Hints:
elongated; single chain; Jelly Rolls; mainly beta; five-stranded antiparallel beta sheet
Amino acid sequence: MATVTHYPFRSAWDDALAPAFGQAAGAAAPGDVTLAVADPADATMDVHALGFNENTEDRVYASIQIPHTLEIPASGNITFGPHVHWTFISDPADGSTVIWKMSYVYAKPGLTTATAGTFAAAPSIVTFDTFTAETGVAEIRKHYITESASDISIPVADCGPSMMFMFTIKLDTTSTVANGKVALLYVDYHFVKGPAGTYAEFA
């Protein structure tokens, strides 16, 4: 392999992505809803999203692979910050709340049994910040991003390039928003990245 010269770099935040339509429907499945209606001349061009109902705890199953750009310090923990991107497909009642909840497991990859991480048998749970609809404000089709109430902190030894999170995301029944109001757009995990990739191919 050719010799590689390494240069100083600046750490920066980035996203690992899980688009809503790239996720598998859960036991209580969100529905396909219309976000934007096309010109009547071509009704096939409507824009759709996944609509969630809070009283059935609609949910989807998904995975996220963390890129090689993950900054891995010599010791300590690595922080991941889950976020939910979502919108209203019709205006909510004033003061109604939207609360997302996520369960997750993670593991780093390995080429052998000795080096491969193990997904936990029981998931950890993250609740996201509560969104409260404002009074007298049109909120339909606004692009909202909601942070997790707490970050995910994982020991360096359990992290690595191409590590994966398997997770379930749902609209929790503690939400007070009415059914047929909320649509999921994306879930992402913020992480601090370092170089453009790893120095070694698998580490």
